[in-house]
Amino acid sequence: MSAKYHLQTKTLGPRAAQLFTELNELRRSTFTLADVESITGLSSASARNLVHKAQQRGLVTRLKPGLYNLVPFELGRATEHIDSPYLIARELAGAAPYFLSHGTALELHRMVTQPTFTVYVSCTRRVRPQTVGGYDFRFVHITAEQEFGVMKHWIDKERFVMISDMERTIIDGLRHPAFAGGVTEVAKGLWMKRDVLKVERLLDYARRLGVGAVVRRLGYLLEHYGLADAPVLEPLRGMLTATYQRLDPLLPAEGAFLSRWRIQLNVTPEELDAVRLG
What we know:
By secondary structure, this protein is an alpha+beta fold.
């Protein structure tokens, strides 16, 4: 621990020093009032007062009611500091299983060329959309059975968040194209990572999710880009019903119908081919 840190904690007062020392040792840059009560043993009112004073001194930044961010001591006093939005997302999910997904996961996996300005989080708990610390958070509700295809993404050497793996990211993008920039953006990610994506895993995830629109879109895209041959795709075709779905639900219901995948091609093959050019 640095001498500067010791110098700072000496000027805080015993309760605040205890709080900040404990939070630093726990590597908890984002914390709640409940954490303050637990660490210091203070009552709810006293904990709120302690944090309020720390906020006035520029030692913490208020993200939203009851949620705060610790300002690193090396930034000095009276510094507005917002930690990684991905760590904030983890806090907003609470104790519920969660993972960063859709457009956010596409970006973190370097599967897109355009950044997204909304943080998408899949979570087994229903959490309303909100803006915290200048970031927009959109939560997508999933069931416990739909929590698969998840991995760790390290923010730094000591802190990580959960994120959908590349295959699950594609599947989620095909289920909710609106949260991933549209089907063409998902197709771009599929093409960009074609050499590392595991087709068998994509098929397995599509079967596990059991959403007809995903089966249609995935089957068609894998076939269009020549990433899987007919025998490999046959199990997906076996899941099809008679209903037709649009390739991109964000676009009008127009374009040719492809009976092989029970899909309406409202994104033209030429538009999908343009993805290969980059």
